[in-house]
Structure formats: structure tokens, C-alpha cells
Amino acid sequence: MPQADEIRPAGSPEAADRLPRPDAWLVLGLLFLLTVIMFIARQALPIIMAFDLRRRLGLSPAAYGIIVSALGLGMMTGEFPMGLLMDKLGARRGLSIAVAWWSAATGSLALAAVGLELAIAHLWISLQLGVSQFWKGTGECGAYSGGVKTVNRLFAKKDRTLAIGIFNGGSVIGATLAPPTMFFLMQRCGSSSGFLAPALAGFLWIPVWWLIFRRESGAHAAAAAEPNISLRRMLGNSSSWAVMLCRFFIGPVMQFYWYWMPLYFNDARHWSLKEFGFLGWIPYLMGDVGGIAGGWAAGVLLRRGFSVRAMRRILMYSSALVCVSALAVPYMRGIAAPLVVISLAIAADNFLSAHMFAAVTDLFPDHQVGRATGLTGIAGGLSGMLFPLLTGWIVGRISYRPVFLLVGLMPLAGAAALFAVGRKYRRLDNPSVDAA
Known about the structure:
The chain is an all-alpha fold and 436 residues long. The chain is 81% helix and 0% strand.
């Protein structure tokens, strides 16, 4: 029995313009590939920093935190413009622009390694890294605005969480491939190649996307006919604050695992680059399993008659509770135990993240999805800017223990905020309610 909020009129723009199922999955595969490339590029900085540039530049944990936070500042700055770009131009053109933008920024990070070879002052190199990170963040955020909008356009509600879990799962596949990839590139071609390779891959992705995703024009025209909603009106909607608060708390958790795990394993566990290259991919692989499992579980519960709200509450709260296991990591000895618990926590957080992004499609109509996702990105960018600064200060002055306490509890806070503030979840079963 389909839920009321899953029913679409046969002549609706969404029904008319949804691609045939095989084409939809092919487009989803391209989104997945894009996320893989983007997160190999994102992981390049922490790995190259942890095992090369940080020591050569003499950076403290606090200084590294500032460079990391520049990405969050860039995402916070670029999210709403990118979301608006996706809503106005459509995901086909919008994503092409965003990918070209962040690929160029990724390539510019290689200038740091070149600067060291040319004996340029370390302060200027550190500043350049921060500027490149900011630039990169302003483009990266478009991948999620465009990806969520595309999934919302191509997939029925019962399949959206799975589809979002798959394309978001590319983040952990990228993070999984990054350690051995960076180890190979750094050993064979030097540190700068670790930035240049994913930048080139991003540029090569664009013509493939442009060739395959061809049938958006009709859907874009239909969406353009929808009433324009001002930013002020969107911010007056409780659903906007629900999804923004959710991402504010949940977003920095996965970023901590991306940006600080190479340093944690090197500083606290004394791993070498070779050890990280051989073992560091395991937690991120488990994250991909978690993301896909989150989407699969959503479909199972919906087919068994659970409402969207009940399904989200059950799965988001249960996965958030699993994330609490991260509190135990700093107290464990050896290699196996902390690796297992971190893997479990990353899997649970990615499970939760699939639902976090899918919640936007629950609460907003298609013509607002890009901007709504952009608003969540502003919130995520703000916390993504502040949390690395806090992490660097805590690690430098205390230890990693308080940080693991925070990342263990923040997913639970994000899930609670979504349902406490998102009042419209209570009305999703009423087809007369306008999700706008």
C-alpha cells in the first residue's frame, strides 16, 4: 500500500519527465562516480598533510584545523548560490559548472608541494592551501545540491533513500580508495600528483555527464513554471530549520573521520604511510556498506506499511545510537579494536547521512529541493568551519578523547533536532498538505 506522500498524479511534471528506469540508474552511476572522484580529491589533503606536508611546513594541529575549516567556510559561502544555480539551470548544466570549478581548485592545491621545492615562505604556502580549500568548498557543495535534485527528479519516493545512499556512498568509496591511491602516487610521482590526478578525473567526468544526462530540459521547464519562493519565506518554514540543524550536527562527524583519521592514526597510533595505505581504507569501505544499507532499510520499512516519518525516526535514531560507540576508541589498545569500532561508527554515520539528505525530498517540493539542500549545506559548512577549529584546539591542548566524545553524540543531536523542529513530518500522510 503506497503512502499518501508517494502518490504523484500521472500527468505531473515529475511523472512525465522521469527517465526510464535503466537510464535513471545509469545517471545515478555517474553521480556515484562523481562522488568517488570528489572524495579521493578531498582525502588527498589530509593524507598528504599527515605524511608529508605538515612536518615540512611545521604546522601545529590548530594550524591544520584552520586550513581544514577553510573548506567549510567555502561550502557555507557557496551552498545557497549553488542550490539556486541547480534550481535555475538544472542539474545537467549546474553540475558541469560546479565540477569544473572544484576540479580547478583541487589542482591548485598542488602549488603547495611546488612551493616547498622552490623554497617559498611556509606562511605563504599555508595561506595558499587555505585559499584553495575555500575555493574548493564553494564548488564541492554543488555536488550534493545537484545530486539530490537529480535523484528527486528521477526516482520514486520509495527508491530515493536507496538512490541517495548509493550516490552518497561514493564518498566513502572515494575515501576507501584514497589511502592506497595516495600511497602509490606519492611514492611514484610525488605529493603534487595526489592533487592533480583527481582534478584531471573531475574534468574528464564532465563530458560524460553532458553526453548521458540529456533529458532534463522538459523537467527543468516544468520546474521553472513553479512559483518562485523567496529565501525569507524558506527561512520562515520550520522544515528548513529542521534539515539545517540536522546537517549542522551530523555533517562535521564524517568530516572528522575524513580529515583527522590520517593524523590520528599517525600521531596517536604511530602508523606509517605504508600501514595507513594498507589498512586505512577499511573504515571507509564499511561506510559505503552503511550508506547502501540505509537506503535498503528505508525501502523495506516503506513496503511493510510504515509511514515516511516512522521509517525515518526508527532508522535515524537507531543508527545515531550506534555512532555513540566512537566514545570508546581512545581507550582501546592495539590496532584491531579501534579500527573495528571506527569502522562501525562510520558505517552508522553514513547510514544516517543517507536519511539526512533524503529528508529534504520528504519535506520540500521538487522546485525547492536544490535551494533547501543548499540551506542545509550552509549549516553544514558553518559547523564544518567551526568544528575543525575546535578539534585542532582540543587535540593540541588536551587529546583526541574529548573530540571522540563529541563525534559520538552529535549524530544523536542531529536526528533529535530534525524531528523536534520538522513539524511537517506529522502531516506527510495527509495528501491535502502542501509540502512547500
